[in-house]
């Protein structure tokens, strides 16, 4: 039990650093996204000249921010889920459904990692119009988030085991 306690303490510090960085990156991306979309709006309706790079850049930021942000809510178990049967189920049945949900999320994380890498390989020569960023950089969000999902699941279960 002492080893589990040490692991939990170590993991909490790793978790705090990794997901603190993710949280701040998401905040920066949201700020940049709001600024860019506002600039597009002003350019389109008041100056009558919309920046060519605005929409692809906002798409790039929105993709990264939304996918990275999903790992933050998974980490704290605040994502949408059906809980109407939870109070009618026994503790053992709840544990089984939690384990099944974790297995599904883990499988999805592996899927994101594997197929995200494949998508990156296929899109490495295509660039986003207006910003000249390879699409592979946008699709990099998938394998990165797949890894973050696994880390979030570890955080979830270390907190559950500690309760």
TrEMBL record:
Q: Does the keyword Ligase apply?
A: no
InterPro entries given for it?
Answer: DctQ (IPR055348), TRAP_DctQ (IPR007387)
Protein name from the UniProt record:
TRAP transporter small permease
Task: Please report which protein family the annotation says this sequence is part of.
Answer: Belongs to the TRAP transporter small permease family.
- Where would you find the membrane-spanning parts of this chain? 21-42, 57-74, 95-115, 135-154
Q: Where is this protein found?
A: Cell inner membrane
**Looking at the keywords, is Cell inner membrane present?**
yes
Q: What keywords sit in the KW lines?
A: Cell inner membrane, Cell membrane, Membrane, Transmembrane, Transmembrane helix, Transport
Q: Note the topology in the membrane.
A: Multi-pass membrane protein
What species was this sequence derived from?
A: Enterocloster hominis
Tell me where in this chain the Tripartite ATP-independent periplasmic transporters DctQ component domain is found: 33-161
